[in-house]
Write a structure and sequence with these properties.
Distance between the termini: 13 Å
Strand order of the largest sheet: 3-2-4-5-6-7-8-9-1-10
Shape: globular
CATH superfamily: Phosphatidylinositol (PI) phosphodiesterase
Number of helices: 13
Helix content: 25-40%
Radius of gyration: 19 Å
CATH architecture: Alpha-Beta Barrel
Largest sheet: 10 strands, mixed
Number of domains: 1
Length: 352
């Protein structure tokens, strides 16, 4: 048994003991590595964090200590605004308030555009510089609209303007410690080039998945994942990779290397983040393949793994046990809607 697996087994036993004794979650992670690489830890994430029914203010979601938040985004090509809402492509329905100071994070009118959500996030991070790192998952509900001025380049510009240096960019993963850079994200990830968690304190990794409407639209032949990966490849070829702010995601749990489904083999090395249903991943897929290559693996709907538990209000013991189970199954982020369990949202476990 490797040292890593020995340690992981000991930590999972500690989590189980903490659950049994009713100890705070922080005690369950007391023996965790103090500073693991970002790609070697498992954290917990919140689905649809922008929903006012879940949190009155986005900052309240961040206050849980969560490792991931999710924003649903629509490209309103009429007004050229990036709207944040679950189902309204022409309006905002969210808990973002466009704060400019920490005091404004918990007051004021909500239902703002995407840039305001990033402003709230930047202000919150400034007030909590030791927090994170945090994954921000964007679901682009209907995809990009680059032909109408709302494509990958415009999203990059928005994030750069509103997150600034807080964003951990593809170029940051590509940068070799001794100088120079890896040729693509795949090579950088496999080399274990992720910084430590402490080095990424106060910072954000933004990733993007294709949206539900986009994936069901038979007339959309260029999905978000392909479009942004081509964008990355083009920026790298032009020597402008530093402009990119986002990591594209392979969406859907499948066996083997899911990137092989892309007919354009040249974009495959630009994917190192994968996202899919937790129950599918633990149902026979070799998730150790992702961990061995230091790829990030987001497991969604964690509550549906058998035996199913509540999506919103499981007991703390159930949520901790499920998190430990999926950490052992090589998840980077365990995602559900456990809104009322900050001791679980703030868990950091060794991956695998």
């Amino acid at each position: 048994m490797t040292l890593r697996r020995t340690f992981a087994a000991a930590l999972l036993a500690g989590v189980a003991a903490a659950v049994t004794l009713g100890l705070p979650a922080q005690q369950a992670t007391a023996t965790a590595p103090s500073d693991p690489p970002f790609g070697s830890a498992t954290t917990v994430g919140l689905h649809n964090t922008y929903d006012p029914a879940a949190f009155s203010y986005l900052a309240q979601a961040l206050d849980t200590g969560t490792g991931m938040i999710e924003l649903d985004v629509w490209t309103d090509t009429i007004t050229k605004e990036w709207k944040v809402s679950h189902s309204n492509p022409l309006g905002n329905s969210n808990n973002c308030v466009n704060a400019s100071s920490p005091a404004q994070l918990y007051s004021g009118g909500a239902n703002k555009n995407l840039e305001s959500c990033f402003d709230d996030l930047r202000v919150w991070l400034g007030a909590h510089p030791q927090s994170g790192p945090l994954v921000v998952k964007l679901e682009l509900k209907a995809g990009f609209a680059a032909n109408r001025g709302m494509g990958p380049a415009e999203l990059d510009a928005l994030i750069a303007a509103h997150l600034g240096a807080a964003a951990f960019r593809p170029a940051d993963l590509l940068a070799r410690p001794g100088g120079g850079s890896y040729p693509n994200l795949d090579e950088a990830a496999k080399a274990g080039n992720w910084p430590s968690r402490s080095a990424l304190a106060g910072r954000v990794l933004v990733d993007v998945i294709p949206g539900t409407l986009e994936e069901s639209n038979p007339f959309d032949t260029l999905h978000t994942d392909v479009e942004y990966a081509r964008h990355l490849r083009g920026l790298a070829a032009a020597g402008r990779i530093g402009q990119a702010q986002v990591f594209p995601v392979v969406h859907g749990a499948t066996a083997g290397d899911p990137r092989n489904a892309y007919g354009d083999s040249g974009i495959r090395p630009w994917f190192v983040v994968f996202d899919g249903d937790a129950a599918a991943y633990v149902g026979g897929i070799d998730t150790g393949w992702y961990d061995a290559r230091h790829y990030l693996l987001v497991m969604t709907d964690a509550h549906n793994v058998a035996p199913a538990i509540s999506a919103t209000d499981p007991t703390a013991e159930q949520a901790r046990a499920r998190t430990a189970q999926l950490a052992a199954a090589h998840a980077s982020v365990v995602s559900s809607d456990w809104r009322h369990l900050p001791a679980v949202q703030s868990l950091v476990l060794p991956r695998g």
